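Cast an eye over my tokenised protein here and flag anything odd:

===
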Amino acid sequence: MNLAERRNVHFYDAARPEQVLGGLIANPSVTNRVFLFMIGILVVTPHPWYVRRRGAESRLERNDEQLEHGDYDICAESEEHEGPVMISISDERSVRRILSRTISSRDKTFAQQVRKRDKNCVISGLENPRVDYDLWVGFEASHVFPLARESLFISENFPECITDKASSRDTGINSCQNGILLSSTIHGLFDSFEISVNPDDNDTVVCFGIDFCNVDGRKLDPVCRVRNDGKAVPDELLRWHFRQAVLANMRGAGEPVWEQDYPPGSDIVGGIMSEPNAGERMELELFTRLGGDLDQPQREGISTPSEEHRPISV
């Protein structure tokens, strides 16, 4: 099913009122303030802009009222032009990722540290009653920034946000500061950017799809955000993840979600090759399966999947 068909909010360029730029499934966590913040991630224009609900006379106020469902026009104005000025949506695409699993000794240390700090699913609040027995079936240590994108992690200067590193050569991508403990279901939704956390809205959980797990509007468990303890997830990483979720779900028709469930004996390669962006998916699969078995010095010789930008089609 195309989730774009379930959108209850659409936004347009006021200069081209028939040109839909994107939209979203607006759950209760999306307030007017949050919606305007999201639009700010997407809009490209050198001119001041504002948003108005179609048919309304006043501008959308930056407040904490729940966003009403409907159509919205993005208006940009310039003293040099009469009437609305055309705007565009960023051609920045979200960073695609596959479900991350702990597959090496380096990853096992990451999982142990995240489990020790969080103990329960920090998004849904699901408790693990078997913590004292060191049993973790149904709970998974999840990377905020994907392990397979380590070169991008470095180029974006995220190692500077990580204080808990194994050595001076360690980038910190496998630090518990880049991890949170999630239930298996929430992990899949988090890695596909269907669920994210907005650090600029008091760590509110935002569901960008159908909220069948009832997590939209919850607050991230503060156990993983304790300041100055050397283990906290930094704002910068959560903000990066939230940005990717906005790009993946709101820009144009939205990014397709890759299939993750391939039963034993099925044609995994054939399934992957039939999906959108198959080449990129194969790169990620190979890097994740091969790169995870190497220590840091060996990994430095492996190129992570290339980052691409492509124009939006509206």
